[in-house]
């Protein structure tokens, strides 16, 4: 499972603030923060997969240890696999705040499922892809375990450099695919797919062969690959990642794990999928910001930043850092901002108890400073600002040449 982009962006930003700026990482941060992505839990992705003919294990989802126990009994399986549901990968090797090691457990005894679930639900699970303190587990997946004789890796993703979808696979799956790519690049196979013509039988067959599926398994794997590609197209995914894409001793090809990312621009035609959006792992303040279409990422410092444009927002974080301070957030107002959004942004910043000062840094090239100024004065009047506020509004020449009749300066506090 790949890290959800939101968490990845947060981690990158935290790293950037703690270290001197890294130019290479910076453009990535700007890209990552310029959009919000839909995140689904593994069980939701697997439901989509099984509804579309992709082979996954039988499973139930549980919110409590008791439900997990009941689910394990109901499955009536030879062996059960219990999996913590969080939006990050590397769960197998993760550690819970309860002390329990491993976010994925196999057992033959339903009672043990109950005992393990008790040490998972309500506790934080920390993996290589989560923040240090981990992410709280609210649900577990209780599935029929299958023996795995071989673990391969399969992903389908939109690749900018190919102008379309690409199949990526490796016979060396189950493990960190970045490590395989670094140590054995010859074990990574790619098939570029023509989005108009769709996936060709020969491409699916070649990938199945490269993944090491032999005999009748080759056709089965190719069929699963085609079904995964059709699902990828149907649901407007930007990435479908299956690691492990495995083989059982009984001769079945099964998707043992699932991570799907979606194209937010397709929300209008994928309403059912977007309704499943699990925002519970976002910080509440980030969800609130998203409601007003503001790009907000919480950081650990105490100086709130209020900036337009991701580049200037990054530079402002750097300036604060270079002067010995620490930013409390990354907030990009963007262009085309409305006065009400400015007000809401201010409301978010002032509600944060960490914030000891607010720095507004606005470049009027993409936004009219009058809108910002009016929003700020309204917010200051209504929100009883208690922390120092430093404002820099620099208008672009284009704006300077024109009159800005909308802005009538008024006293913030009555004399
Ligand atoms: P991740 O660690 O978050 O990527 O979680 P995965 O779902 O990939 O599970 C981690 C590992 O647990 C897999 O690579 C498998 O080796 C193992 N695993 C998961 N499900 C099963 C199962 O049904 N049977 C067996 N034998 N192993 C499993
Ligand atoms: Mn996995």
UniProtKB/TrEMBL annotation:
Binding site for GTP: 57, 90-92, 146
Pfam families, alphabetized: ATP-grasp_2, Ligase_CoA
One annotated GO biological process: succinyl-CoA metabolic process
Gene3D superfamilies membership: ATP-grasp fold, A domain, ATP-grasp fold, B domain, Succinyl-CoA synthetase domains
Top EC category: ligase
Reported function: GTP-specific succinyl-CoA synthetase functions in the citric acid cycle (TCA), coupling the hydrolysis of succinyl-CoA to the synthesis of GTP and thus represents the only step of substrate-level phosphorylation in the TCA. The beta subunit provides nucleotide specificity of the enzyme and binds the substrate succinate, while the binding sites for coenzyme A and phosphate are found in the alpha subunit.
Protein name per the record: Succinate--CoA ligase [GDP-forming] subunit beta, mitochondrial
Organism: Bos taurus
UniProt gene name: SUCLG2
